[in-house]
Amino acid sequence: MKTNTYILNTLVVLLLTLWIPSSLYKLIYYEAFKSGILQQPLSYTVAWTLIYSLPALGMVTAILLVTERFRKVGLLLSSIQLILFTGYIALVLLKVWGKPPCSCGLAIPQMGWTNHLWFNLFFLAISITGYVLYVKTSNSKKDIHADPVAAQRVF
């Protein structure tokens, strides 16, 4: 069980290396971020909703991930965001909208869309693995507390 906790903590740290810098980039370079989103093939309403919500959503995700009580929600939110972002990239690669510019910031624009897809799939796998491991670890803790005999075997 301790090994699962170490693995889970490592996965959370990896996710924090994604969410914190990307959220800070969107805030620090707000005008560039806004310009990039407005160049995407999105409706005006969706674009402005993303402009206002994505930086906050990334920071909320990071806060949830570091808060033990809300880590499960953070892992789920991370997974959902990455599924949506990865789906969007897949649609770009399928040329559904031509070739819009990447508005993610940091080193990602230099990656190109294909590498960006792999980057997102990597972090999506981390998020989903973290979520599954968290649920598995939480359930085994509940089992130990519910079964005193099992608790004696572990300790």
Automatic annotation (TrEMBL):
Q: Where are the transmembrane segments?
A: 7-25, 45-66, 73-97, 117-135
Q: Which InterPro entries match?
A: Methylamine_util_MauE
Positions of the Methylamine utilisation protein MauE domain: 6-131
**Topology in the membrane?**
Multi-pass membrane protein
Q: Which domain of life is it from?
A: Bacteria
Q: Kindly list the GO CC terms recorded for this protein.
A: membrane
What's any GO biological process attached to this entry? methylamine metabolic process
**Where does the protein end up?**
Membrane
Q: Keywords in alphabetical order, please.
A: Membrane, Transmembrane, Transmembrane helix
Record flagged with keyword Transmembrane: yes
Q: Residue span of the signal peptide, if any?
A: none
Q: Name one Pfam family in it.
A: MauE
Output this protein's name. Methylamine utilisation protein MauE domain-containing protein
Q: Which organism is it from?
A: Sphingobacterium nematocida
